[in-house]
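Lecture notes, structural biology module. Today: joint structure prediction for complexes of two components.
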Amino acid sequence: MFLEEIIVTIETLNEPTSRIVNVAGLDINIREFGEGKPLVILHRSTGYLEWDAFANKLSESFHVIYPDLPGFGNSERPDWAREARDLSIVMAELFKVLDIKDITLVGLGLGGFIAAELATMNQERLANLVLISPAGIKPVEGEILDQMLIEHADYIRHGLADPSHFENKFGEEVHPDIQDIWEFSRIMTARISWSPYMFNRRLPHLLNIITVPTLIIFGNSDTVIPYTVGQQFIDNLSNGQLEIIDGGGHLVEWEMPDEISELIAGHPR
Amino acid sequence: MLIGRFTERPYQDPSSGYFGATGRSIQDLSISNAEYDPQLGSELYNRYLDEQVAAEEAGFDAIMLNEHHSTPFCMGGTVNTEAAILARITDKVKIVINGNVLPIWDDPLWLAEELATIDMISKGRLVTGWVRGTGRESVAHNAPPPFNWERFQEAHDFIIKAWTTPGPFRWEGEHYDFRYVNPWMRPYQNPHPQIMIPGVVSKNTVKWSAEHRYPYLMLATRLEPTKASFDYYREVAHESGYEAGPQHLGYLFKVHVDETEELAYETGKKFLDGPGNIFLEGSRGTASPVLQNLPGLTDRKNLLPTGEVGFVAASRGRSAADVARDNNSENPDSRNVRAAQTQATLADYDTQLENYTIISGTPKTVIPKIRHVLETLRPGTIFFWDGDGAMTHDDSMRSLRLMGSDVIPAVKEMAKELDLPGSFEIDTQTNEPYNPAPAVAEVAGGGGGA
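The predicted structure, tokenised, for the full assembly:
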């Protein structure tokens, strides 16, 4: 993809294959790489940008499947979708269409919200669940940073524990193609999560349904979602484990891909 | 021709720092209402109502109100309340609301009720205008921007049905559900108040207005892009099977009249002071890029010529002064900055006087300029935007007196000579002479009516 040429990456990354799969009447774009048990990553509200070091690392131990969520990237927009749960239903259907089982489902941010909703409805195909700085629950302390009221580049910067990582990745001026992806992603995010923003008041009451092992990862320097939300997840889960990354920001898998992928690989399935 | 008067009813607070171009930057939605003084608000609301009554006495055909939220440049957050009061304390003028921000109403039935009430109290003088609103309005009332245009259209269809179809009926749309629609009030006018659609840059809105044969009111934009947008209206009208005339086109522009040229020059400058609408010509405020660009709010590829100049406000005179102020917003109290701003404001002002975005003078000099606007754009409806910015009550009243004695009579003659009928002379729906059905007539099959 063109973005791989734009984004400066230091290590050599594998080239995933892409294909379009029809799911619930929608064309869904997926990327795949690696051998082993299936691991599905649900991206953040910013959308998929590249096969990054995190995906690359995971593809050393798993068959990584990285879809564009419906309405993001190259996946068709479900005009009817109004909440995160609608995308969860489509993603659960994707697993059926791909006929994958024993899945490690990894959700990042908004993708974590969608993954948690999915697991409350249908966990038969899941081996375990990993939610990395997930949205989905209204914080007891603090608020979720509202991306709708700040410039998107600033929103991304908020996600980083080390602000220099932003420039390392995007350069001094963010490429217009990346800005377009952000803009497009923001529209779908607003369509499903304008209000309430990034949570579902019903979700905490349903989390106890999830029986597969669930790992919640938060950085304690997260300035997008208060990391204490991690404990709120744990309080409602029957089989949850919390990992707090000292000094980790919201985009912790981007800044610390090795540590996070090791935690995932070591999590009981 | 329909000749109206308009002011945004700015919150004029001399102690605020943003009033009178003293240098403090107003960025959209960046000012806490901790600064709001209800005592001052009370005085201003009453002053503006008094001025609207004076406008009627001066001979205006219409007074126009608008709606914005969470901002000092316009006090019309609950514009229907003001309109309802004017309905009772005026006698003849059309009361034009341009307009209610449809997509932010979660309950448009309530809006249909309010407008019908205003129409009845005014005995059929309401002209109702509807807008999509800017990002500010979507944020201030938490309406989802990606569905703004859909909600606008559905709320419109719903209100028209609520006004014209005997209830009770059920409405189950994409964005609104009502199990029982049967408002215990109906508009005084039959079938409903005239609808006018104001706009600035959205091509969709012009197209939609032309398709519905609603008069389109261009808000205070330079002549050339306005003319091009009117041409687009005519083009859509032609494609829709009718020819658009002056009755379909309206124009709002800044006109101040005063006793001497010197006084007019000094007072007209006040348009640029005060907490002006950041989207309009000569504003001292800054638009927030974030609010301008809420996800899915505007189709950025579908703008009118007014928007293609680049940043919208660039076509409306935001230039040197804004740059000076914006660049120095971190240190607004610096004397140099203020001096630079004053100079730049002056430069902007002179430019705007030259390009007709502000007309200020004695009747003798103002009337030929208005003629130039009418000849260039050929609108059937015009609104003089006056008494705004940092203008005082006295400034407004001097202008109103001269409008009444000299300007309005002259413009009425001019409109006849130039053949510019308004939407109350030629029916925009039929292009026939305006001949509305008797008010409050029996609705076919309905139970109500007088």
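Point to remember: The domain at 2-266 of chain A is CATH 3.40.50.1820 (Rossmann fold).
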